Fold:
Amino acid sequence: MERQIVLSGIRATGKLHLGNYVGALKNFVELSRDEAKECFYFIANLHTLTTHTNPFELRASVKDIVRDFLACGLDPKVATIYAQSSVPEITELSWILSCIAPLNLLTIMPHFKEKRDKLNESGITENAGLLTYPILMAADILCVKSELVPVGDDQAPHVEFARELAKKFNDMFGELFPMPKFFGGAGLRLPGLDNRGKMSKSEASSVIYLDDSHDAVWKKLKVAITDPQRVKRRDPGNPDVCNIFTFHHALETPVDDIARITRECKSGEIGCIECKEILAKVVNDILRPINERREQIIGLGAGYIDEVMHDGGLRARKVIQQTVAEAKELVGVPCY
Ligand code: TYM
Structure:
């Protein structure tokens, strides 16, 4: 059976959070359980270099994320799990793609503008890697001939860019790459608890981390922003503008519960604290099994994660070497 190729990656920029779970990891696991799919999931540690330059933190973060992959339910025998840096052919393909990538498209990428502004605000000049970031990402996607890319919707422009490069390459040099498709769904941009933009690793106070304890979750939820117009317990609320309802939907609180709390919020029968208690239970039901599995994985010893990454790196490299050799052949720059 020809299996559909799935690929996605996560940068090694710190602890994973519920946004990463909803936008990416949950789908990683579901897709990997489908026998008709072959999944490649990697740590984008080369992309991390565009914003993070502490080698010790970077090394540790890669391993933490692999541990979280497994804790979320990925089986390394089924999905190929690797670090981007284990497969040098990806950067080789990235160079080839950079020679057909339109520069003007790179400069208008939302990711580039956002990161550049952030760096500039702290007096740092943006590096060239930030600009060419989407080319390396296209190489990640195309090097395994991926057809499906499960990511949160902030990454949609990057997947679109990879499609454009795939099409351009195929038109110029011959059919090699399938058209990769964005795989996502509703609620794939989880907001921060302060409702100021998406939940992100760099905004610690508005983030629920995957390794947060029950108490830590409640401490953060208790003070999270709700409907700003609702001041007193008996005031009628508006679920349409309440950040907590965004979480209920994204984290799939049972529909009957959502229907009831929507009704009771509007009539002022349920207070924000009770509504948050229901959400806390949903969050903890997601985090508990992840945290239990993480403990078991830690019990297997540090060497276990090294083994998973080594084995995944070899498996990924075999596939990627083949694609990159084909690309080089088509372009006219073979290995002599
Ligand atoms: P990164 O590390 O920023 O995020 C990893 C994944 O988590 C998703 N995500 C979210 N989804 C919903 N709500 C949020 N608040 C939220 N925050 C993060 C992201 O959409 C992503 O799916 N460029 C990628 C890494 C990458 C990659 C690739 C991904 C490199 N090469 C090839 C796919 C294919 C990134 O920065 O992800």
